[in-house]
Amino acid sequence: MSREQQGQPFPGNPPAEPAVEVQLAGQSGCDAIENLLQLYLHELSAFGSREAGEDGRYPYPYLPLYWSEQGRWPFLLRVDGNVAGFALVRQVEGRFQMAEFYVLREYRRCGVGERAARLLFAQFPGLWLVEELAANTAAIAFWRAVIGRFAGVFKERQGPSGLQQLFDSAAPVHQLCRTGHGQ
User: Fold this and answer.
1) Domains in the chain, number
2) How far apart (Å, rounded) are the C-alpha atoms in residues 170 and 183?
């Protein structure tokens, strides 16, 4: 049986990357985001930041605002057409903020989160703030790496809930290198 028939790529041929897209969620995507949000908030409860209500659900009063207020955008993350997570982006005081970002476990550690984040940063050029819970060391490492590769330079500071990264997505490193500026 050949390597290809065994499902193994030939040496030197990287495996195909899944197609990642960020899709602005209309009202029809609200249920999917609400369901994913419960998984996300459950994971965050491990850091002592959330408690379930009497109905067993984790409250998140801001979700309906993403369909009713300007300056808020709900996104479904998709991989090869399948729902893989969500992102909630908002604009506060002249900068974009990744309010919430979640990738289902089966899509983690294969570049899906980074590709989705980069698509969002590129879609909203300008100043950004990303904040992680202080105890969520995996999220801190993820965002430092992703933002570092995307923007090259970012500031870090302590925020009210944890560590914050601030950067400008208007001229990310990958654009600077491609155009020859900033070298």
Assistant:
1) 1
2) 17
The answer as to whether 6 is a domain residue is no
Beta bridge partners of 90: 72, 97
Crossing angle (nearest 10°) for helices 112-123 and 137-151: 50
Q: Which of 124, 99, 115, 182 is nearest to 150 (CA)?
A: 115
More confident of the two residues 12 and 181: 12
The domain that contains 77 carries what CATH number?
3.40.630.30
CA 45 – CA 53 distance, rounded (Å): 12
User: In this structure, is residue 2 part of a structural domain?
Assistant: no
Residue with tokens 């914050």: 164
pLDDT tens digit string along 49-65? 678 888 989 999 999 99
